[in-house]
Write a structure and sequence with these properties.
With about 500 residues, this protein is of the alpha+beta class. It folds into 3 domains: about 130 residues; about 80 residues, Alpha-Beta Plaits, CATH 3.30.70; about 290 residues, Rossmann fold (3-Layer(aba) Sandwich), CATH 3.40.50. Helix content is about 40%, strand content about 15%. It contains 22 helices and 17 strands. The strands form 3 sheets. Strands 5, 6, 7, 8, 9, 12, 13, 14, 15, 16 and 17 form an 11-stranded mixed sheet that branches. Strands 2-3-1-4 form a 4-stranded antiparallel sheet.
Length: about 500
């Protein structure tokens, strides 16, 4: 156990017991075993956050597990909790209480987020999230990750601001996702790799896409391969859809749905920037026409066609225009087809006749889906900009979100007969939106006699941080899912559960 923590606990105990000031105790002759400045900062910090710390420890049940009948344990637990949540965000040294706090740090953060969402946002932003690098997903359909990495390294060397033997500490290929490059903020800012629009040619030519590491797991865990038919059920603003398009490698189909018109236009704009795609084409007057994004109306996006994109090399494209619809049915479907449509996923009800529709109707694609990627609205508690929604009680909001997310997941698991894989994800750290949704969805499918899927290990060799649950069912779910912890994994918070149809196992 760090001497600093032990001394801080003694000081706090003496202040409480003798009702004296912090300064007089710290500067007494007996309190000289550690750095006075660090000790003073720690004691002031714990004193200032005592009310919050006590509530968080109570809600997380750590007060019950720490033998607080010993007064010294009580103050030491407050010191350790402060260090984990507000201080260095990492406890130094060993000891039973230190191990207890480390083991339950995710539970502490969850309680912290629920009780003090504004406060945790400030702490996260200033401590953890500032250390997260900028992640760049390489569009491997255009260029390899190694080639892009070399290009970035060359750009860095030309600035003469980093020693050659030190550059690898600022830029590296991610160990879990081989087409993702991480850049520390100094490099990303210097090379304009941290913004859109950007003057950097790698972004302008779509060779790289700004996408956080956690968000990349949806397509990776779904094991999307060329030729797949995929549904991105809540697709806007489009990072996951773009990743899916990349993994299809010019062969397969994607249906990208969203119910928000503004967000859909953002998605369409991003897809239109992929250099090898032609479109968007919209269905007008019994024909397909190219259209400017600002001219796309809800009328264009509603219905069973929406707007579509094709590979520019498709035989259906003539002079960057789609051939007349009268001839479309005489051609076999294109190798690559992207549908974008405005649709509430819960209202999407496939029928046995959908496969008879022409290939340019997105319900034709829906009838042959293999993969559903589902990332519904969530609290966003894993993101740095997360904060409390004014006027809304957090428990009430989480209950509402959890019920909605459960409906979405049940719909994915029960309404699409051809689907073999469903990946459910959130950018939340709350159990209510993650493990609870998984458990509720599986139980409701089972109770209705429609349990076709099982939870499967999302990603081999992935290690979640240690976490304890009062409900053992959550623990079993957690073992198979991906839980991205900003502190542990150095990227934004993210959760993913992978379901595989029993007949496909």
């Amino acid at each position: 156990m760090s001497t600093l923590y032990l001394e801080a606990a003694k000081v706090l105990n003496k202040i409480e017991k003798k009702n004296v000031g912090i300064r007089s105790v710290i500067y007494s002759e007996k309190q000289n075993k550690c750095n006075i400045r660090k000790l003073s900062a720690l004691v002031h910090g714990v004193s200032g956050k005592r009310k919050e710390l006590e509530l968080i420890l109570q809600k997380s049940h750590l007060l019950e597990d720490s033998n607080i009948n010993q007064i010294s344990n009580y103050w030491l637990l407050l010191v350790l909790a402060y260090e984990q949540l507000f201080g260095n965000l990492k406890i130094q040294g060993g000891g039973a209480l230190a191990r207890l706090v480390r083991k339950n740090k995710d539970k502490l953060y969850e309680c912290f987020s629920k009780e003090y969402p504004d406060l945790i946002n400030q702490v996260k932003h200033s401590k953890v999230y500032e250390q997260i690098p900028r992640y760049l997903r390489v569009n491997t359909t255009i260029e390899s990750a190694e080639s892009v990495l070399n290009s970035i390294l060359d750009q860095v060397k030309q600035t003469n601001q980093f020693a050659n033997d030190d550059i690898q500490n600022y830029i590296w290929i991610d160990k879990h996702i081989k087409n993702v490059i991480a850049c520390k903020h100094e490099v990303a800012k210097l090379l304009c790799l941290d913004r859109i629009p950007s003057s950097n040619e790698l972004i302008k030519t779509s060779k790289v896409v700004l996408q956080d590491k956690g968000s990349c797991f949806s397509a990776i865990c779904a094991k999307i391969t060329p030729g797949d038919f995929v549904l991105d059920a809540c697709s806007a603003p489009g990072s996951k859809s773009l990743h899916i398009i990349d993994m299809l490698n010019k062969r397969g189909r994607l249906v990208a749905l969203d119910k928000d018109s503004t967000r859909i236009k953002t998605l369409i704009k991003r897809i239109s920037e992929v250099p090898y795609l032609a479109g968007p084409f919209v269905y007008k007057k019994k024909n397909f026409e190219t259209i400017q994004i600002e001219d796309i109306s809800d009328e264009c996006l509603l219905g069973e066609i929406g707007c579509i994109f094709l590979d520019k090399e498709s035989k259906l494209i003539r002079n960057n225009k789609l051939i007349m619809i009268d001839y479309l049915d005489n051609f076999k479907p294109p190798d690559l087809l992207i549908h974008v449509a405005k649709c509430d996923f819960l209202s999407l009800t496939p029928t046995t006749e959908d496969h008879l529709l022409p290939w340019y109707h997105y319900k034709n694609t829906i009838s042959n889906l293999r993969v559903i990627v589902l990332d519904p609205s969530c609290s966003g508690s894993g993101l740095p900009q997360h904060g409390k929604v004014e006027g809304v009680n957090i428990e009430k909001r989480l209950k509402s979100l959890s019920e909605f997310q459960t409906k979405m997941l049940i719909h994915s698991l029960s309404s699409f007969q051809s689907v073999e894989t469903v990946c459910y994800s959130t950018c939340s750290i709350f159990t209510e939106e993650n493990e609870q949704v998984v458990l509720n969805s599986l139980e409701k499918c089972k109770n209705s006699g429609n349990l076709q899927f099982s939870l499967e290990i999302a990603l081999e060799n992935w290690e979640n941080p240690n976490r304890s649950y009062q409900d053992s069912s959550f623990g079993e779910i957690y073992k198979k899912c991906i839980f991205v912890n900003p502190e542990t994994h150095n990227c934004r918070g993210f959760f993913l559960a992978k379901f595989v149809k029993n007949s496909s196992r």
